[in-house]
Amino acid sequence: MSVLLMEPFYGGSHKQLMDLLQGEMEGCVLYSLPAKKWHWRARTAALHFMQDVPPCDSYRVLFTSSVLNLAELVALRPDLGRLRKVLFFHENQLVYPVRKNQDRDFQYGYNQILSCLVADTVVFNSAFNMESFLTSISKFLKLIPDHRPKNLERIIRPKCRVIHFPISFPDVCREHDKDPETFFKIMMKLKDQGLPFCLSVLGETFTDVPEIFSEARISLGSAVLHWGFLPSKDEYFQVLCAADVVISTAKHEFFGVAMLEAVHCGCYPLCPKALVYPEIFPAEYLYSTPEQLLKKLQNFCKRPGIVRRHRYQGETAPYSWASLNGDFRSLLTAEPGKDL
Fold first, then answer.
1. Pairing relation of β-strands 121-124 and 160-162?
2. DSSP assignment string, 241-290
3. How confident is the model at residue 176, as a pLDDT?
4. pLDDT bracket for residue 13 (50, 70, 90)
5. Residue burial 145-180, b: 16+ Cβ < 10 Å; e: rest
6. Fewer CB in 10 Å around end: N or C, the chain?
């Protein structure tokens, strides 16, 4: 036992990564909290883990997500502070979208900056995630009325690196924050125009579900094949393999596991020409406006052979565990004080 895994928000991609590391690598022990009430996890998880994690002399590396306030944990548990501390960013709170900037809670982004300062290595799942965080630090700290800290980007950047989220792709023969309003409005327009299509809406539900979901499910009626969370990963991949097109209307995305899983299963991706998507997908799969997305889908509904005969003009292999496991093994086998 040499690696301490900590996940304050054990659900979705956070759970997927921790389960993968624990399952594929020897010597990992996991402590976690259920994926509920994200804001409270970010505020109080360090205090919980201070009491929940017993002292152990065999730990060498602490690996956690940026939901945890690592600075608080290190202060509360100096024994854990002596480990090599690896902080993984699934998303960052400096550019996470809010309706109005004054609605942004300063504390969450501030916690992530503090965590970076005490971490030994800071890992981002994409270059977009890393650069959007680092280049926003100075502007973000201007919210402090006076005595603002200086040069934090310069201090943090040398610790940072990009390692893409590792996906265990299936052996196949061939997500308020995701802007469901735009997605379902376009689907309803297709239905109103009498265009033939079938729809599967898959995903885990946490707490607040926008009203548009229930409205759309009623309006789309018989066009809906699947709706909601599928408990079996095999069932989930079967639905993806039966689909032709996968659509993102995300207002934020720092990586996009589900999109890559769908592409691996043979779906034609349609993504915004923004956020992380240009980093991952070739230009032909990107759209700039909802109108462009609607036009593409109208064409696909009328000519489904276009997507069924299409072969994805990109690669999913670089995002697989098979390709990335060496990077993660290096992270989790480093000794305290050793440069990676």
1. parallel
2. HH-SEEE---S--SS-HHHHHHHHTTPEEEEESSTTHHHHS-GGGEESSH
3. 44
4. very high
5. eeeeeeebbeebeebbebbbbbbebeeeeebeebbb
6. N
* Res. 222: pLDDT tops 80: no
Beta-carbon contacts of residue 322 (< 8 Å; ≥ 6 apart):
none
Angle 28-31-37 (CA atoms, 0-180°, nearest 5)?
140
Backbone torsions φ then ψ of 263, nearest 5 degrees:
-65, -40
d(CA 313, CA 315): 7
If one counts every other C-beta atom within 10 angstroms of the C-beta of residue 61, the result is 22
Place of tokens 């990009």: 162
Contacts with 222 (C-beta within 8 Å, 6 or more apart), sequence order = none
- Per the document, the length of the chain is 340
Helix or strand (DSSP H, E) at 325: helix 321-333
Q: What is the pTM of this model?
A: 0.85
Residue whose C-alpha is closest to residue 93's, from 68, 80, 110, 78: 110
Q: Rounded to an integer, what distance in angstroms lies between the CA atom of residue 121 and that of residue 160? A: 6
Which domains can be identified in the chain, with CATH numbers? 3-167+320-333 (3.40.50), 180-319 (3.40.50.2000)
Tell me how far apart the alpha carbons of residues 246 and 178 are, in angstroms, rounded to a whole number.
13
Tokens in use for 125? 């799942």
Has residue 277 got a pLDDT over 60? yes
Mean pLDDT, the chain, integer: 90
List of residues 6+ apart from 39 with CB closer than 8 A:
105, 108
The dihedral region occupied by 139, where left means phi > 0, alpha psi between -120 and 50, and beta the remainder, is alpha
H/E element, 210: none
Please give the pLDDT value at position 260: 96
Nearest to 40 by CA among 91, 103, 108: 108
**pLDDT > 70: percent of the chain:** 91
Query: What CA–CA distance (Å, rounded) separates 280 from 315?
Result: 9
